[in-house]
Design goal:
The chain is α+β, with helices and mostly antiparallel strands. About 15% of the residues lie in helices and about 35% in strands. The chain is built from one helix and three strands; from the N terminus they run H-E-E-E. It is elongated.
Length: about 70
Amino acid sequence: MPNVVGKTLAKAKSSLRSHHCRSGKITRKFSSLRKKNHVIKQSPRAGRRLANGAKVNLTVGKGPRH
């Protein structure tokens, strides 16, 4: 399971595919810590061993709230 936190959504999906995983539920939240369209959280966490084709849930930043 790769660490995709901090990557853009497109790069995160590509990284997951290269590790034989796929994106699951994608949630969007406001965040002042990460840029817009960057992954701020993943579940399960990086480093876990998963079965081929396992889904990884991602939380993607919408940018800071105005």
